[in-house]
Amino acid sequence: MKLEKRGEVSAEEAAAAEAAQETVQAEQTAGRKKPVLLYLVILFAIALFLILFSFLAQNRVNAMEMQEMQAEVDAARELQVKYEQSQAENASLRAQLEEANALAAEESRVRQALELVWQLERYYVSGDNEACRAVLEQLRSDDLYLALPTESEGEGESDFESPRAAYDRIAAELDGGET
User: Which of 75, 76, 102, 171 has the highest CB neighbour count under 10 A?
Assistant: First the structure.
């Protein structure tokens, strides 16, 4: 009987053996789940670290690019200011040039009128009335006589007649008072 008992397993013993085997399997499965869970946690931590590192690196690159763009904007503003200053200076120089050209033209008219009055006086003194009338016509045609100075230049201004007065005197004598 003892042999029979040994070969036969009672239902209680089979249930206990099965429960023990399930407990061992559960412990083995739980033992396997812990390393996998730890491995997943480590991978997740590494991924978070890499994401944080890439974020910081990208943030640094963006900050450097912003500094470069700000420097370019500042340089562009400086160029704009210099351009506006040069435009203002250009306009001022153009105005000065126009004034200088107008002054030169006026001085040229005065010089031309003085030369004609000089010729008029020479012809008048020599008695060449036809040449005098031709010079008077030149002075009147371009209104050059209006450019003649009304005051004489020189040290003894009262000693000399002004070019305009000389023109008026000679024109009055030749034309009978018509200027």
Answer: 171
pLDDT at 30 over 80: no
Confidence of residue 3 (pLDDT cuts 50, 70, 90): very low
What is the C-alpha to C-alpha distance for residues 61 and 76, in angstroms, rounded to an integer? 22
Residue 145 · residue 139 · CB < 8 Å: yes
How many CA atoms lie less than 13 Å away from 62 in the CB half-sphere?
6
Q: For 96-110, what is each residue's pLDDT tens digit? A: 999 999 999 999 988
DSSP assignment, residue 150? S
138 Cβ neighbours under 8 A, 6+ residues apart? 116, 144
Tell me the helix, strand and coil percentages in the chain, rounded to 5. 85, 0, 15
Average pLDDT for the chain: 85
pLDDT of residue 1: 41
Q: Are 121 and 166 in contact (CB under 8 A)?
A: yes
- Single pTM value for the model: 0.50
d(CA 136, CA 165): 14
- Asked whether the beta carbons of 123 and 131 are under 8 A apart, the reply is yes
